[in-house]
Design brief:
By secondary structure, the protein is an alpha+beta fold. The chain has seven helices and eleven strands. It has a single domain, classed as Sulfite Oxidase, Chain A, domain 2.
């Protein structure tokens, strides 16, 4: 089938080449990566509808496709912040994260403060899944971690809870108006989904700093920006107002859709 080379595609390719970004290891997947694609624009506009349609048509427990070891063809490509320059983070990292604590707060009966040993002692789940970044690349990797559901259950989530907010350790933006740390959020359906895990392992190794050590979220039915890296806290809330600009995540506050279902 003939492929139209548009001026925009050509420019994108040129810009990518100039930026030195290597796409060869991770496959460009589909129109979701083409920011001006008409279908993508339509889908983004219809996002509210899409979310309702997805929620109505698909079971809340629908599993994202899982792959085999043979499908892991390249190292997981790091993206976004890949080495937080925050002093607190670097101090923790220099000590192998021995002093790291995951704080679980908000609408819970028992707030928790868990070290990595406690987290690794909980039941684990391993899954080989495809990560789709909104920028248009995908990577298949193997993730090991604790189901978020297990952590929520041990904290005891209160009935009015609607969302889980992930607080991250990396400052992604510095400007005159201040410093912004990455954050994200998901609803309780995704929070309790069996494939939603806090991963501490990747491709049978400890999770590398580039990919979010010591803990990062996997929410397999959504795009990559939902999968917060460098997670230090989980806050169970009724409303997303009051975090950042109130849209539920760092990128959402800058125009991305909150529900990034794929
Ligand atoms: N804390 C934090 N989490 C983050 C980001 C980030 O910059 N900081 N980038 C997001 C984006 S856009 C993507 S595609 C994935 C990249 O994960 P990876 O580095 O393991 O490929 O992390 C997401 N989570
Ligand atoms: Mo991304």
């Amino acid at each position: 089938m003939a492929r139209l080379i548009t001026r925009r595609n050509f420019l994108t390719g040129t810009a990518l080449a100039a930026s030195g970004i290597v796409l060869s290891g991770c496959d460009v997947f589909d129109f979701l990566g083409e920011r001006e694609n008409a279908m993508r624009q339509f889908m983004l506009k219809a996002n509210g509808l899409t979310m309702r349609a997805q929620r109505a048509l698909l079971s809340p427990d629908r599993l994202a496709t899982e792959f085999t070891e043979a499908d892991i063809r390249q190292p997981m490509r790091p993206n976004g912040v890949t080495r937080p320059d925050d002093i607190d983070y670097q101090t923790l990292a220099s000590n192998g994260f021995a002093d790291f604590r995951l704080e679980v707060t908000g609408l819970v009966d028992r707030p928790l403060s868990l070290d990595l040993e406690a987290i690794r002692a909980m039941p684990a789940r391993t899954q080989i899944t495809r990560h789709d970044c909104v920028e248009g690349w995908s990577c298949i990797a193997k993730w090991t971690g604790v189901p978020l559901q297990a952590i929520l259950d041990s904290a005891g989530v209160r009935p009015q809870a609607r969302y889980v907010v992930f607080h991250c350790m990396d400052t992604i933006e510095r400007s005159l108006s201040g410093e912004v740390k990455y954050y994200e959020s998901i609803d309780m359906i995704d929070a309790r989904h069996p494939q939603t895990i806090l991963a501490y392992g990747m491709n049978d190794m400890a999770l590398p700093i580039e990919n979010g050590a010591p803990l990062r979220v996997r929410v397999e039915r959504q795009l990559g920006y939902k999968m917060a890296k460098y997670v230090r806290g989980i806050e169970v809330v009724e409303s997303l107002a009051g975090f950042g600009a109130g849209q539920g995540g760092y990128w959402e506050d800058r125009g991305y859709e909150w529900y990034a279902g794929i």
